[in-house]
Structures are given as structure tokens and as C-alpha cells.
Amino acid sequence: MLMHAWRKWLPFSGPVIEKSVDETLLQYQRRTQKFWGLIDWVSYTADRFKANTVLIESKGPGISAAQALQSRFGIKPWSVIAAPVRGDKVARAYAAQPVFASGLVYAPDRDWAQLVIDEAANFPKGKYDDLTDSTTQAINFLRSAGRAPSREEWAVNKEMGEPRRRSRPTALYPC
Questions:
Q1: What is the pTM of this model?
Q2: Contact 68, 113 (CB under 8 A)
Q3: Distance of alpha carbon 42 from alpha carbon 4, whole angstroms
Q4: Separation of alpha carbons 149 and 167, rounded Å
Q5: Long-range CB contacts (< 8 A, 24+ apart) of 67-70?
Q6: What's the rounded Cα separation, in Å, for the pair 36 and 72?
Q7: Angle of CA points 112, 131, 150, to nearest 5°
Q8: Which long-range contacts (CB under 8 A, 24 or more apart) does 126-130 make?
């Protein structure tokens, strides 16, 4: 299920702005949000949607982002996984295509969901590809971890008895 999406062009990290003593967390967030960088927005989004895992591409700036999130927000209830990338964006999209074709992806009726759907429909010839790449990366990660089985896989697992549940992914740098 697509939970949320946003497209922003942000600096890696925003300035450190101190919280006033008499200010609530909500007031502080509203006052400082316009100055947030990528790391702040990812943390806020993970907290807001009670994420278990933040999945980040483990190449280029993604490695730095994963390290910064873990060092700055390591006490949060979500973990950071720097996922290895295999192949190019088009190959990864083709690998995720059967999940869409099987009707296993649900998108709510929201403007931000339509943004992702439109970008995926225009991929790879569209102007943008980041949301499509993130979506296919998540689907392929869930599939490889056994957390998004197809109907056929589900039926086989049911027939053979439920497989042992996997433990929660560990943090990139456990405390």
C-alpha cells in the first residue's frame, strides 16, 4: 500500500534551530519546517507514518543520508536500511512490474498518489523518475525479503505450512 509520497528539492540538511522553552513540538515544527533539509523531512515523515524501516539506496549520496539519519535519529523507533542496488532504474522497474500486474499494489485516492501513478506511467520517458525508482525499490526489497508474496507464493506457503517469521530488520548502525 502506498502510504505517502512527496517531491521536494532540498539541501541535505537544514540549519540547526533551537526550540524555545515555552514552545510545543507542533509549534516548533511549524516555525522551522520551511528551513528543513532532506534528513529532517525523512525523519518527520517516518515519525508521522510510524514507519518501521527507512529504505535508502546504498550508492552515492544515499550512503551519506543513511549514515546521517542513523547518527542523528538513532533512538527513533524506525531503522535505516541502506539497500544495495542491482541494475539500472529501468531494469528494477521491470522486476517490479509483475507485482503491479497482479494487483498487489494499492494507492489511495489522493493527489500525492496520483503524482506517483502519473510518474510511473510515463517512466522512463517522463521528466521525473525519483518516485518511480523509490516505489520499485521498495517493492523489490519487500519481495526479496519475502514480505510481499504473490498469490501463487502465498498459496504454496499456506499449503506447506506457514514459514517462520523473519525478525525485524536491524538498524544500519545498531546502538
A1: 0.82
A2: no
A3: 12
A4: 17
A5: 67/172, 67/173, 68/12, 68/13, 68/39, 69/39, 69/42, 69/43, 70/171, 70/172, 70/173
A6: 14
A7: 95
A8: 128/7, 129/89, 130/7
Report how far apart the first and last C-alpha atoms of the chain are (Å, whole number): 30
- Contact call for residues 80 and 172 (beta carbons, < 8 A): yes
By three-state DSSP, how is residue 79 classified?
Answer: strand
- Name the residue with cell 549520496: 61
How far CA 131 is from CA of 6, 86, 91, in Å, comes to: 8, 18, 15
pLDDT in tens, 80-138: 999 998 889 999 999 999 888 888 888 999 999 999 999 999 999 999 999 999 999 99
Task: Return the closest-CA partner of residue 56 out of 42, 44, 35, 72.
Answer: 42
